[in-house]
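ingest -> fold -> write
write: protein_1
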Amino acid sequence: MEDKRLSRDPSPESPRTTSTASDGRSSTPGHFKPWPGPRVNPSPLRPQILNTRPFRKKTTMKCTLPHPDSSPKIVCMGGGTGLPQLLRGLKKLSRSTHNRIDMAKITAIVTAFDDGGSSGRIIQDYEMLPPGDLRRCLIALADEQSEPLLVRFLEHRFDDKEHDHLAGHSVGNLLLLALTQIHGGDFRKALLSVTKLLSLQSTILFPTLSPATLCARLSDGHIIRGESHIAQRRGHASIASIFLEHRDDAATRAFEPMDGVLEAIDTADLISLGPGSLFTSVLPHFLVDGIVDALNRTSARRVYICNLMTEVGETDNFSVGDHLRHLNRMGVNVDAVIVNNRPLPPPIALAYEEERCRLSYQKTLRRLDHAFNLALHDRSQTNELEKTIAESAQRLSRLTHRMAHPEHNILQVLVREEEDIPEHVAVIQRDLLAEEEIMGDEGRPKTVIRHDPEKLARCLLELDEGVRADPGGNAPPPHPEPHGVHRS
């Protein structure tokens, strides 16, 4: 039966009695403000009702946001300046409705063995864990769009003209120190407080809360103690292995993992190792009790993110295979490795080469100066001085050759021809370079190379999509591997 209330041509015999007010509106006796009837589209081509207020149906718009359960649980392990780049990329992708990123399902495990600069002074004076790498990750995860001033505040560093006790310290490091003291030395509570202060959704952990010193055993048998001394050591012997020592002599030999670390690894869908310095930011995680076992039993895909550049004193002339071999020596096997394949722009490559030559020259002079001072105060050391002079002459000769033939020097970590990489490791190559301008040690800006945050995060997520498409873990790499990769 037709509902006349929805008729486009109401009958003139309608019992409704209307009158017209002075402002042109109709009114009905006995009613203050009657409903005037449906508003009709006057177009004969589209005879639909535009407004039927008494018969409006409640509608629900379809949302294109991904379901929270589809977001992968990601654990990111690393430190230095590399890990914050990845965290920034994941944060940026989480703002898009087209990406399955839930920041509440991301856990960052940040290396805790820095002992240089501001962190080193805080360790010595206040006997707390180093805040430097942690501060960088907190800032990377903070919302700089809603709190830009807060992010700049945490990054502010007092210059050398300030009072001696403040010079070189960053506000973020001092904030973590203050919160630790407020909570009676409980670093867990301090970390929770700063997480709430920055309104972070992600979880940030240290591999261990045991105060430790990172040590390196060199190929010539010497031992270097302290993360900041490993790359700046005087000798040129390579790193054979690394280990941890307790800063507290009364402590037990064990290095217990921080609460939540093993659980995060066990329940993860995807685990990234790096980016970060191989010997001082990535491998130290595996010296903590239980972490290697957790990585080997997890069902998550384990991905190593290779550094963009070789590092003086740590990974000189290293290839991708060299990085993977050192992971394997620590007992860690990975399922995939992400490598940049874009060459450095020539001006930046030249600047890096010049800086490395300068560092090598200064390192040789420091070693020579040390030997000279020893012999000056102990004449029995003159033979050692002669030996050092001869070795220094050889190193300076090699440095001269390096300066004359920069094209032969290995700056980037790239997949080389006939690279020996295990059969089960997928090699993912992408253009991951980004140029950033930072303030150099001399107070002048300089351009450095970093991982592009968004490109790196997208590449990592592609691997997760492959795992979900093939739960057996046999998903092929997103793109074909390069020619010249030799499978062992």
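write: protein_2
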Amino acid sequence: MLILFHISYSLFRDRKLRARIFMAFLLACSILAVLQFANLGGVQTVHESRASVLDANQNIYAWYLGIALLILLGILYRNRDFHTWTTNVGLLLSGVLIVQMVLTGSRAGFLAAFAGCCALFFGGNVRKVRFRNVVLVGIMTAAFLTICLHSDIIVERFNDSIRNGDLAERQRIFPAAAQMILEKPLLGWGTYEHLLELRYRVYGNFVESDILDTHNDSLFVLTEVGILGGVPFFIGLLISFKNVWQARKQASVALPFALMTSLAVMGLSGSLLIYKLFWLILAYANASYAKPCQTVKAPAFSSHIFTPGFAK
């Protein structure tokens, strides 16, 4: 994964290439969401009233849709050259992405997308822009609350969490993982072994699966490699957040900050570092602050949102 991060970092420094990468990701997620929305191609799968595609994990699928939503909203927010019909299509597609994300029933995915949207519209360099962004955050909050209250599966799962403390076994997994960290704090339990040990501690001799995920990035790292292996990882995360914050302040580009915010929120409820998208976002976050490797003029649809050097 570190090799993927290094390669991606080098590629994302090319503003034209990174624009095309994100557009390809947005197009792929949009096609899946539209096919699922129209119930075409047999891509939709339903498990315990939670929808997904091609038997993918509902939480991860919701996270992917949330990232696509942030990219799309970022394009619509920063670009001023779109025709009205293009903006309308983008807003319609945003609605489809949100609806399909809600149908997954993923609480963490829903909250991560909301946090990312708030981060996307956060701040501003002048009073007029700050006021507009506050209004946009208010509208976004009202929209997410409305959608949440009209989704039976989301309301039911949030009620289970608040009233019954039901966190989909996380209420048992987190204490067990924390105890494992206390027992082997320096070097951890080792790759794969920490997931086997966690499964045994949570389920005992009852084998529900071979391994059990920690459902948290920090717990995953600390149980696997301990403090000695976790410190470099957490330092890297802090540097990435510092870079996206500096890029946001210097160039008024909030997409890297929004993606990192969404990643941080989702990482509280899932082990994202085993997915390639996690490392791609980290690479983009650091490349957003780095000096571009070339000054080729980017396409009109991308120059305002993906290029940290652009400021109005």
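write: annotation protein_2
Residues 54 and 216 are 24 Å apart (CA to CA).
Residues 15-166+299-306 form one domain.
pipeline exit 0
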